[in-house]
Amino acid sequence: MIFKSHIIPSHLSKYLVDIIYHRDFQPAHNKDRYLPDGTINIVFEFTGTPKYIYKKGTDEKIQECRDVWFSGVQKNFLTISSESEEMMVIVFKPGAGFPLIHKSVSEYTDKVIQAEGVFGPNIKQLFETLKESEKTEEKFKIAENWLEEQLSEDDFYTNIIQYAIDAIENSPTQINLSELSDKLGYSQKQFIQLFKKYVGITPKQFHRIVRFNEILTAVENKEEISWTIIAADCGYFDQAHFIKDFQSFSGINPKKYIKDIEDFPNFLPVK
């Protein structure tokens, strides 16, 4: 298996989490569960192998994805088939959606659609160019060039929303969203509308996702885990609330998560 993560150039680092390329991935399982992290993604599958999205908690296929598709911000977990021989994924930071698609990101929240429906025919041209390129570094450079053309200049609101995102991510256990909206000079209603436009979800929903990912980070690579301590450290005041949130985002309880997790905290094999 070949797995490469691109070194993001500085001028794109405020928009991108990563660009990932992998080939010859043959997992022992046939489904993956993607746990929400606030990002949006463009996914390229170069071999023509379709990927299927499943109805939550079942084996029922509800959607087929081919060639290149766009995944909006997900508020809950997404189950998708694992089979693929060659893929590239561009992962965008929270707040980068509006400069990328030039309209409200909330239109695509909890949706996965063929990318032509978002970017028009030029995304299919990008797909063909990437597919024809034989070298991984060339693929990364081609993707960079397309992003430089696609991403718009930051506007006044981009910087405001980025400030809010940073405030939530840096202090998820202490942040007060009402005080944050006051500090930015907006009513709560205005703040929610603006945040949804640029991030795809409300500040409260984003805060819950950030806190959930704090938990995943806290348990990563730990041999002994006290869920009571971790829940308290991540801002939960009772176990019932913690478990309810965890199951909502992952579809499983914390103990099963630890049993199932393999290489990446936000991806679980479904066996």
UniProtKB/TrEMBL annotation:
Reply yes or no: does the keyword DNA-binding apply.
yes
GO MF, any single term: DNA-binding transcription factor activity
The reply on keyword DNA-binding is yes
Q: Which residues form the HTH araC/xylS-type domain?
A: 158-260
* SUPFAM superfamilies given in the database record: Homeodomain-like (SSF46689)
Which keywords describe this protein according to UniProt? DNA-binding, Transcription, Transcription regulation
Cite the InterPro entries for this sequence.
Answer: AraC_XylS_family_regulators (IPR050204), DUF6597 (IPR046532), Homeodomain-like_sf (IPR009057), HTH_AraC (IPR018060)
Q: Spell out the PROSITE patterns in the cross-references.
A: HTH_ARAC_FAMILY_2 (PS01124)
**UniProt-listed Gene3D superfamilies:** Homeodomain-like
Organism's domain of life? Bacteria
Q: Which SMART domains match?
A: HTH_ARAC
The identity of this protein, by name, is Helix-turn-helix transcriptional regulator
Q: Which organism is it from?
A: Costertonia aggregata
| Classification lineage | Bacteria, Pseudomonadati, Bacteroidota, Flavobacteriia, Flavobacteriales
